[in-house]
Amino acid sequence: MDAGQFRLVNRYSGLVLGLSGKTSRLAETTPLRSWTDTTGSTVGEGRTAAEQTLTFTDAGAGTLGGIHTLAASGKNLDDPDSSTATGTPLVTWAPHQGENQKWLFTRQAGGSYTLTNAHSKLCADVEGGSTAAGARVIQWTCTGGPNQRWTAAKQPDGRYKLAGVRSGLLLTTASTSDGAAVTHRADTGSALQLWTIG
């Protein structure tokens, strides 16, 4: 979803979600009749246009298009040995700025991203479309399938949690050692699931 201003209207009742600065009525629904009714009538209840307009801010990674590195616990997401073979399991490795550690973020409908390796031109893919925790993340021919799409949720410290669209599980590295396997797993709050996007 793009950032901007939207009205939230219940499609069954036609009522609008309204927010107010008055502590007695912070959030409620009001009839969708007039956006500028300030008369206090029982129809509009005196709600102004400002009280019925919400600003949506992308809580994910709305500006992440382009080529980036991804690092968890100081190790970069890596296509090992600069492989160009489909099915190669991804690992994390000490940063070295090689093309095999660079990933093209391409935004998809709904705000998710595909991650394409700059060297191999293959996409980060949950093997076999698995939804099981611990399934390997490999590189595969880019198909745009849900097992190749990732949401990026920015955390308060600026790092990101990357979740598979198909599984909802988080991109996770096994350890801080070079060559650690990359899988997808349930959110445990581990630093091994928090990615710095550079």
Automatic annotation (TrEMBL):
Recorded superkingdom: Bacteria
Ricin B lectin domain sequence ranges: 61-198
Protein's recorded name: Ricin B lectin domain-containing protein
